[in-house]
Design brief:
about 450 residues, alpha+beta, 8-stranded antiparallel beta sheet
Length: about 450
Amino acid sequence: MTTTTEQFADVSATTLLRFATAGSVDDGKSTLVGRLLHDSKSILTDQLEAVEQASLKRGQEAPDLALLTDGLRAEREQGITIDVAYRYFATARRRFILADTPGHVQYTRNMVTGASTAELAVVLVDARNGVVEQTRRHAAVAALLRVPHVVLAVNKMDLVDYAEPVFASIAEEFTAYAASLGVPEITAIPISALAGDNVVEPSAHMDWYGGPTVLEHLETVPVSHDLTACHARFPVQYVIRPQSAEHPDYRGYAGQIAAGVFRVGESVAVLPSGRTTTITGIDALGESVDIAWAPQSVTLRLADDIDISRGDLIAPADDSPAVTQDVEATVCHVADQPLSVGQRVLIKHTTRTVKAIVKDIPSRLTLDDLSQHPAPGQLVANDIGRVVVRTAEPLALDAYADSRRTGSFLLIDPADGTTLSAGMAGASFAAVAEAAAPAADDDTEWDF
């Protein structure tokens, strides 16, 4: 069976939305998630009964919907590490994958995981407290990760008498801050997750608000799935050579398409070597197809016998990323141990892992005023900063602004495999002018 371009067009019209929630401690994030699941009829009967019984034992007349996520808190108390809790639900208009991220400042690193694949981020703010440092941190992470849509959910409006001026002031401050970071679209919604105002159903207490509810916005926000517009990238994960009687000369390169579309007959380049060849066949699920697209897992067959191994990148010959050993990027440091200038690390980019050294840390971002603190020397947990990394072998890196999959990487401790930092190659914020970073000095003792 051969895959047709019509089938490809059908897949590109999917109605799946990936979104992440973020908020400071006690901003009501768990209650919002519970309210979304409850009011959209996405909770099983036995789950709701368990919440009702637990609420009654606490002396609460109404179900405490925050208890739907309390299992995660209990797991943390038992010493189990959880990065992100993924929840799946659907309405008649769209399917959703929700990445529920912790709110405490020490878990900011987990928002990087949850928002890295998100197309929308919901940032909660307590109407009584307004925009706080953690709110700015969440906005900065969303901007760095190029999340195209951000929703500001001003929660607990019931505790400020549903006052429009309170909402307007918070929305104005946050919108100005997020816009200065380059966030392309910001939607502010006043809500009470506890009472259900403007979460799924419109609020009867805020007739001054004429915008959508949270769920209405999630159902209608435009989501781009035009895979043909992406730069095609195929990181090789495994080389298949059965050398059997049935397939004596078969040589295929297996992996998951990171972005874009590949077609039989297309001229491609293999990086970092730069050798060019032609795709002669594509195998998907045991069948030959003419076309394949992200995020399908396929095997490519090429016209020439080129030395290709795990970690190599296959891309269109006329649209290949630059190959470099000098990586300039913004990183969010996620480890408890600091990242220092001169530190030797591993850099994991798609399926390729190479040795590297941190040549320079030009600046660290100050979230209060978005200024750059020059030459900090090191980054500690939850810091966001610019780094210059020199790799032992060339990497085929896109700018993160062009490709979230092939413009991202991890810095790893070679001693124990601990993830140190999550990196985004190229410029940081879309609309923020970076201070000129000092050039890294030549290292005469460099031995790569």
